């Protein structure tokens, strides 16, 4: 009886084991179909979304870095252009200043030359006037001294000799 009991216990244990095994396999298939696959798909989609977001963030960061580099380059170029504009303005101002100075200098020389020419002309006119006055005075004096009228040619000769004498005296001074 003990043998039968052991045999019965073994067979019932075998049946229970088979039942538990079949129930476990069935439960595993149901969990795989209704829980594991959707959870795995959801995790895969979440992984893809996070990867996509990270890629997008990297792309945006790279774009921002490129934009930063472009702005820095543009800023450097604008600084160089500003320096060039200032240098050109200084050069232009210096050129203009030099032109104005040169023009003023040439105008001053022209005025000085004109003044010298005017002074020379005034001197010559004064000399001619003095010559006429002296000639007339000398004719008057000579007429009174000599008591007679001088002829025109005598008068011209007398004037010319007096002028030569005046010029000689004036040049020695």
UniProtKB/TrEMBL annotation:
Record flagged with keyword Phosphoprotein: no
GO CC, one annotated term: proton-transporting ATP synthase complex
SUPFAM superfamilies named in the record: F1F0 ATP synthase subunit B, membrane domain (SSF81573)
Keywords of this entry: ATP synthesis, Cell membrane, CF(0), Hydrogen ion transport, Ion transport, Membrane, Transmembrane, Transmembrane helix, Transport
Gene Ontology molecular-function annotations: proton-transporting ATP synthase activity, rotational mechanism; proton-transporting ATPase activity, rotational mechanism
Entry's transmembrane regions: 17-36
UniProt entry tagged with the keyword Cell membrane: yes
CDD domains according to UniProt: ATP-synt_Fo_b
Family: Belongs to the ATPase B chain family.
Oligomeric form and interacting partners: F-type ATPases have 2 components, F(1) - the catalytic core - and F(0) - the membrane proton channel. F(1) has five subunits: alpha(3), beta(3), gamma(1), delta(1), epsilon(1). F(0) has three main subunits: a(1), b(2) and c(10-14). The alpha and beta chains form an alternating ring which encloses part of the gamma chain. F(1) is attached to F(0) by a central stalk formed by the gamma and epsilon chains, while a peripheral stalk is formed by the delta and b chains.
PANTHER family reported for this sequence: ATP SYNTHASE SUBUNIT B (PTHR33445:SF1), ATP SYNTHASE SUBUNIT B', CHLOROPLASTIC (PTHR33445)
Function, as annotated: F(1)F(0) ATP synthase produces ATP from ADP in the presence of a proton or sodium gradient. F-type ATPases consist of two structural domains, F(1) containing the extramembraneous catalytic core and F(0) containing the membrane proton channel, linked together by a central stalk and a peripheral stalk. During catalysis, ATP synthesis in the catalytic domain of F(1) is coupled via a rotary mechanism of the central stalk subunits to proton translocation. Component of the F(0) channel, it forms part of the peripheral stalk, linking F(1) to F(0).
Protein name: ATP synthase subunit b
Organism: Bombilactobacillus mellis
């Amino acid at each position: 009886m003990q043998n039968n009991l052991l045999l019965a216990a073994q067979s019932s244990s075998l049946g229970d084991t088979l039942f538990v095994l079949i129930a476990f396999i069935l439960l595993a298939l149901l969990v795989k179909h209704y829980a594991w696959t959707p959870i795995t798909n959801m995790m895969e989609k979440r992984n893809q979304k996070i990867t996509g977001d990270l890629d997008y963030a990297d792309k945006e960061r790279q774009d921002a870095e490129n934009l930063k580099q472009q702005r820095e380059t543009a800023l450097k170029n604008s600084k160089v252009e500003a320096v060039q504009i200032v240098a050109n303005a200084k050069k232009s101002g210096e050129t203009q200043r030099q032109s104005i100075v040169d023009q003023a200098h040439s105008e001053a020389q022209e005025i000085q030359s004109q003044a010298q020419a005017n002074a020379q002309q005034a001197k010559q006119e004064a000399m001619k006037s003095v010559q006429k006055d002296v000639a007339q005075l000398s004719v008057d004096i000579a007429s009174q001294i000599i008591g007679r009228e001088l002829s025109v040619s005598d008068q011209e000769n007398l004037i010319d000799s007096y002028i030569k004498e005046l010029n000689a005296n004036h040049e020695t001074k």
